[in-house]
Amino acid sequence: MASTSDIRNGMCIEMNNDTFIVVEFQHVKPGKGAAFVRTKLKSLTTGRVLDHTIPAGHKVDDVRVERRKFQFLYSDEDVDGKKYHFMNSETYEQTFLREAMIENPGLLKEGTEVDILYHAVNETALTLEMPQYIILEVTYAEPGVKGDTATNTLKPATVETGAEVRVPLFINVGDKVKVDTKTGAYMERVKQ
Q1: Over 80: is that where the pLDDT of 142 sits?
Q2: In the chain, how many domains are there?
């Protein structure tokens, strides 16, 4: 058991027969009334994000999680939907996760090192954390027009994983771009 003063970003808690990860939190002490903690929680089973207010000093059930390094191998489809296969970097044991457990699965490139969070007590996979940025090659983009580099206009481009990313007009086929895995947004062009 932990108290509200222990709440941090990335902390996993159990509530209403579900496991949540703390996305944001804010300790609030209004001028009138009792203090409380305003949180934004993401369900690790459904992916839903909800706002929740916890009174100060209230106990929460924290979940002990373990981070394990895995390497993305490939994805395939079965009757239940898309599965993503991973290999443990230390034991070479293979596992798979359903598409719903992965945020921005379209940015996963074969060979990418990821962290999978496991519930330490019952050994179940909770969620996958990709690196903050990933470098991908542009496989399709409309050609840019000379002189259109002064504006902040973006165009759609397809990267090597098949995902679509909005990029500036000067990006062409074959360029490598750095993409934020949380938002799927273009960050910068990478020199080759």
Answers
A1: yes
A2: 3
Domain boundary among 13, 32, 62: 62
- Domain CATH code at residue 122: 2.40.50.140
**Same structural domain, 78 and 124:** yes
Give the Å distances, CA to CA, from 43 to 22, 98, 111.
9, 15, 27
Determine the structural domain holding residue 104 and report its residue range.
65-129
| Residue 106: per-residue pLDDT | 87
Q: CA torsion sign, 174 to 180 to 186 to 190?
A: negative
Residue 180: what pLDDT?
Answer: 92
Query: How do residues 94-105 score in pLDDT, each as one tens digit?
Result: 998 888 788 888
Query: Is the model's pLDDT at 148 over the cut of 70?
Result: no
Mean per-residue pLDDT, 122-143: 88
DSSP annotation string for 29-82: --SSS--EEEEEEEETTT--EEEEEEETT-EEEE--EEEEEEEEEEEEEETTEE
Both 70 and 20 in a single domain?
Answer: no
Q: Which of 152, 182, 181 is nearest to 167 (CA)?
A: 152
